[in-house]
């Protein structure tokens, strides 16, 4: 298993290209199931999760081709991939595949909409909490699906097709909003989703579906209206920039100090997180094609944050912000409201010398003047990268184990940081 070795202490200076968003690419790829025509996605990141979803979609009958060769001069540019689900050959998503990747559960929406039936394994537990699927079930039932649970599978059927309806989510869910929006695109009549997730990835999926011929308005707000159409066509769509990758590198620069331009992204995607970073002492300015983040001289100020659905502070940046706060000049409080068990990084940060105490959903972080490198490991993607951020300032060597978590969501992390002066290397095997 690969590991990442970091020698802390270097400031970051230079330019980091931001990849296409994993959390947008996955639902966009799943949307290819909705049409027998070709959906072309540009700026698809090279990530383990993308490769895994390609395999899962292949099981349902989706063929794919990758355009052209990867240019040696532009190794960072995302791929253009063509997805074609000419015929759906299987409406079952088996446990072996869904349990590997939670987002693959989302195929239930398109399969039900296009084939009027789907048999999808329950995803099961997950390292960051129980992550139930009740909202998906309720939403699809509102569109007329009958749903049974049989031997660990959700068996969904909509004889004669889904029918539009009004549905109010009792709780904001990004995944369930994606699924309901895809399902309603091919339902008969109008669907109105209230208390929808407002994440930029939801708006990106709606833009793609509209390019495919769907009639969706309001995506990006709490009320989404979808007028069902009888069929969708192919389209070409560019995956939006990854706001979590953007925020992660911005936090890394705030941690080490330095001056870095993040290219191909924009501040509107993560305003709340950038405001917190500004309060902590980083200077952030928009540039023509991205943003510049600078921290010179001054220390890191303590800032309290509470995770919330968009436009709140993203749960996917909570661990990284905590890493930053371990070096602040005082005490900060970080509250996690989305997942009940998303503090696995705390014990590992403590191994580097961080002082963090937990009380329920809140972490109290007392800044320390120094961290010291150590071997660490993490059990999820965002927790792993928080250890990288801490390692960038820890004295001596930090060895991050289980790098496969990082590879699920960060494209060429060691190269991107290395190009800005960090001493980071991947140790294979
Ligand atoms: C969530 C995050 C998303 C992040 C992703 C991966 C939010 C609102 N969502 O998205 O930003 O990228 O994790 O870390 O911040 N829930 C139910 N029943 C359901 C579905 C969800 O109770 O049927 C709960 C979840 O357990 C969670 C909350 O609703 O507490 C939000 O879940 P949801 O947005 O669906 O999770 P993801 O789509 O995984």
Write the topology of this structure:
Layout (H helix, E strand, L loop, with lengths): L2 E5 L4 E6 L4 H10 L6 E7 L3 H13 L2 E4 L12 E6 L7 E2 L1 H4 L9 H8 L1 E5 L12 H9 L3 E5 L2 E5 L8 E3 L5 H12 L4 E5 L5 H12 L3 E3 L6 E4 L7 E4 L4 H14 L1 E6 L7 H10 L2 E5 L2 E6 L9 E2 L11 H8 L5 E5 L9 H7 L3 E5 L2 E5 L8 E3 L3 H11 L5 E5 L2 H6 L3 H6 L4 E5 L2
Parallel strand pairs: 2-15, 3-14, 6-7, 10-11, 18-19, 22-23
Antiparallel strand pairs: 1-23, 1-24, 3-5, 4-5, 7-9, 8-9, 11-13, 12-13, 15-17, 16-17, 19-21, 20-21
Helix pairs in contact: 1-2, 1-7, 4-6, 5-6, 6-7, 8-9, 8-10, 8-12, 10-12
The chain binds uridine-diphosphate-N-acetylglucosamine (UD1).
């Amino acid at each position: 298993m690969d590991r990442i070795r970091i020698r802390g202490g270097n400031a970051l200076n230079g330019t980091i290209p931001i990849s296409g968003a994993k959390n947008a690419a996955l639902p966009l790829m799943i949307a290819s199931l909705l049409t027998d025509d070709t959906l072309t996605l540009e700026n698809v990141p090279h990530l383990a999760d993308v490769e895994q979803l390609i395999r899962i979609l292949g099981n349902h009958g989706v063929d794919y081709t990758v355009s052209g060769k990867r240019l040696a001069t532009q190794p960072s540019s995302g791929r253009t991939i063509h997805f074609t689900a000419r015929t759906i050959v299987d409406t079952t998503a088996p446990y072996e595949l869904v349990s590997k990747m939670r987002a693959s559960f989302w195929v239930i929406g398109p399969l039900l909409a296009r084939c009027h039936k789907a048999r999808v394994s329950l995803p099961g537990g997950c390292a960051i909490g129980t992550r139930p699927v009740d909202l998906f079930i309720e939403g699809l039932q509102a569109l007329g699906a009958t749903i049974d649970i049989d031997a660990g599978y959700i068996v969904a059927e909509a004889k004669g097709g889904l029918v539009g309806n009004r549905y109010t989510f009792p709780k904001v869910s990004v995944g369930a909003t994606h699924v309901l929006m895809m399902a309603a695109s091919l339902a008969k009549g109008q669907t109105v989703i209230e208390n929808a997730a407002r994440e930029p990835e939801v708006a990106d999926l709606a833009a793609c579906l509209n390019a495919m011929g769907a009639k969706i308005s309001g995506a990006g707000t709490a009320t989404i209206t979808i007028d069902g159409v009888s069929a969708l066509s192919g389209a070409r769509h560019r995956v939006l920039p990854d706001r979590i990758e953007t925020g992660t590198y911005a936090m890394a620069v705030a941690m080490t100090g330095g001056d870095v331009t993040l290219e191909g992204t924009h501040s509107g995607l993560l305003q709340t997180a950038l405001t917190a970073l500004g309060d902590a002492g980083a200077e952030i300015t928009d540039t023509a094609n991205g943003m510049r983040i600078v921290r010179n001289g001054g220390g890191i100020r303590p800032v309290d944050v509470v995770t919330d659905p968009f436009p709140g502070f993203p749960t996917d940046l909570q661990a990284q912000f905590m890493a930053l706060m371990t070096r602040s000049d005082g005490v900060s409080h970080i509250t996690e409201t989305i997942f009940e068990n998303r503090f696995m990084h705390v014990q590992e940060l403590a191994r580097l010398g961080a002082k963090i105490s937990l009380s329920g959903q809140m972490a109290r972080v007392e800044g320390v003047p120094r961290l010291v490198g150590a071997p660490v490991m993490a059990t999820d993607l965002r927790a792993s990268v928080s250890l990288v951020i801490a390692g960038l300032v820890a004295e001596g060597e930090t060895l991050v184990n289980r790098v496969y978590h990082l590879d699920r969501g960060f494209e060429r992390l060691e190269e991107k940081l290395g190009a800005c002066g960090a001493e980071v290397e991947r140790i294979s095997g």
